[in-house]
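2024-03-11 09:14:02 DEBUG pipeline.ingest accepted 1 chain
2024-03-11 09:14:02 DEBUG pipeline.ingest length=207
2024-03-11 09:14:03 DEBUG pipeline.predict start
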Amino acid sequence: MSRKIARQGNLRAQIAAAAARIMAEDGVDDFALAKRKAARQLGAAHRHAMPGNDEIEEELRAYRSLYQPEEHSARIAELRRLALAAMRLLERFNPYLTGTVLSGIAGPYAAIEIQLFPESAKDVELFLLDRNLPYTTAERRRYSGDRAHAVTLLSLEWQGAPLRLAVLDPRDERLALKTSVAGKVAERAGIAEVSALLAHGDDAAPS
């Protein structure tokens, strides 16, 4: 049994490393897609061998630190500058940066993800329309514990980068939100925190 567990653990580590390489080299920002591609490359089909997102994130940080240090740091800084400009524009809606731009693992084609907590989702849409910022709309869910919260997702182009605005109920601002029931709580940062990250030139998310 111990040999079987060891083999699975070794395969899990190989998949994590391969998935990280796919994300870094191919610009893939979807962890699930990267895992599937990595598993196919390694001929793995055992679901228990699949690494968690946190394991891939650790490998991804190590890979970029070794092979893409200057290029990646510059891209993260640029995306955070764009995010901060968008947050300042949307300040009245209580914006928070989240996702891979905040965590510091965003690829070259990653979207800037911002959570908003306005009194009404329509207020945000009218705000964008008044400024001639076209967008598309979708419905998503976020979770606090096992309870689902409805989210309006507005997608648009912002100064050459994709921007996704998750519009939530203001009562959810104090909650720890996840993208799935089994997922981990999404880190987020307000305007002051993102400003501090840029000022310090820090690639990682605030602790």
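2024-03-11 09:14:41 DEBUG pipeline.report The chain has a mean pLDDT of 87.
2024-03-11 09:14:41 DEBUG pipeline.predict end
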